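User: Could you write out the 3D structure of this protein bound to flavin-adenine dinucleotide? I've included everything you need below.
Assistant: Certainly. Input first, then the structure.
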Amino acid sequence: MDDVVESEQAEGDQGLAALRKSARHDLARLNYPAANWVPERTDPDGQRVLDVLVVGAGMCGQTVGYGLLREGIGNIRVIERETHGREGPWNTTARMPILRSPKHLTGPDLGVPSLTFRAWYEAQHGAGGWDKLYKIARLDWLAYLLWVREVVGLKVENGVGLLKVEPAGDLLRATLSTGEIVHARKVVLANGRDGSGGFRFPSFPSFDPGNPVRHGRVFHTLEEIDFARLVGKRIGVLGVLATAIDNACTALEAGAAEAVCFARRPHLPQVNKSKGVSFPGFQRGQGMLDDDWRWKIYTYMLAAGSPPPHESVLRGQKLPGFSFRFAEPWLDVVVDKDGVTVKTAKGTEHFDVVLFGTGFDIDMGRVKEINSFSPNVKLWADARSAEEAEANAEAARYPYLGPGFEFVEKVPGRTPGLGNIHLFNWGSILSQGALAGDIPGLFFGVNRLVPAISNALFRGDVARHVQNMVELEDPELAPTDYFVPRNKRAGTL
Ligand SMILES: Cc1cc2nc3c(=O)[nH]c(=O)nc-3n(C[C@H](O)[C@H](O)[C@H](O)COP(=O)(O)OP(=O)(O)OC[C@H]3O[C@@H](n4cnc5c(N)ncnc54)[C@H](O)[C@@H]3O)c2cc1C
């Protein structure tokens, strides 16, 4: 019986085992992994140079690794500072029961049907189970990602972080948390949503996020929080988008007495514009547009904001103690010994605990791994007029990336090697669209990044590849009567 049919009939663990077999067979049919074609190089110490170092093995990093193996770029390492199963936000700081995106998402499969989420789910719950599924459970998404990684045979080095990357001739020298120094031709920073700047804490006269006095009292919503300690507490939340609401709900469900979510806006943003541009033409085409279009699209997107999923709002609405306060910006936050005092535009509030649901910053100066390069990273501010950059200060801070997600030098020639670092995270949206952050764009993003790396590696070795072609001997005709040895051949050898 065909493996695929078999996998549809079995369910649960048995179904998954059958699907694994079927997926591996599909990969074999695609000649995966392709033979490595990149010539070996050695560093000044005689060690083999890595062709690509992928930093981060969340959804993006693992899909890049799989894409490189498919392309025949096998001399890679994929490092991840967290332990296995703690990559990305899914079972740590994400606090929503289901994904926002629709269930039929693809991406980590890179076009192989038996590696899709749907295949993974149907293998365990059958076609009927799939029909009944509303949206993907958060932890299912993590389990699915780990399953894909295992099936495609991607080796991830967990517990290994990149500390810094520096120029080293025509190579990059990476210092790892293990103390190891490695040389690589390319580095891909697939280091997550916070990988282009870190958490965003708004600036208030009396609050310093670096001051340990905030511990236990003020958290960013994407930090680890022990919700059991919030029982009976009154909580102030700055922000009304998805993460802010899901944190407020998690606190209330854990026994907090009240959670009040504040916004500067007069009401919730109403339309998720990115839904309307989630189709191949836009996803492929946006990064190929001229600067004026790209700037127009994302300055609009950033200003429009995105509503929280209705499921999160309904989750909050049902909980006694949950409320929104619109048109009430915060002016100051003071941590005192028994709580936090918040001065708002409308009055003074006292909370036991405060949560900042204020998202991530884009600030290349805060990406410590690339400290030695960051002053020379070209930003969108460098590509627009001073007036435009001032009027759109957030957009202006995004890096201005090249067509393969590579950094571009602000002053050409000052930081050799910068163009060999590819930024595959949220920081790339202004240049490329949302191809390295949200799930729907992942397929397009990896299929842009991997060919760009492949192209650059090939061009870097073109003389050698051409020489190999000239020297190639292939005794195709040896078994016949018409074979002519090289030294007796006429014309081009
Ligand atoms: C709460 C939350 C909910 C989301 N829900 C959705 C959704 O429903 N739909 C959707 O499309 N998108 C969603 N997203 C957006 C996006 O899909 C996720 O952020 C996703 O995790 C992005 O994958 P990633 O690989 O870029 O980042 P991550 O999954 O965060 O992976 C990055 C990895 O890099 C590692 N790392 C960082 N720095 C280093 C270093 N120096 N050395 C080694 N390793 C390093 C980190 O440990 C991390 O594991 C959500 C994001 C968040 C935060």
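The pocket of flavin-adenine dinucleotide is lined by residues 55-56, 58-61, 79-82, 87-89, 94, 99-101, 161-162, 190-193, 195, 243, 369, 425, 437-439 (CB under 6 Å).
User: Perfect, thank you.
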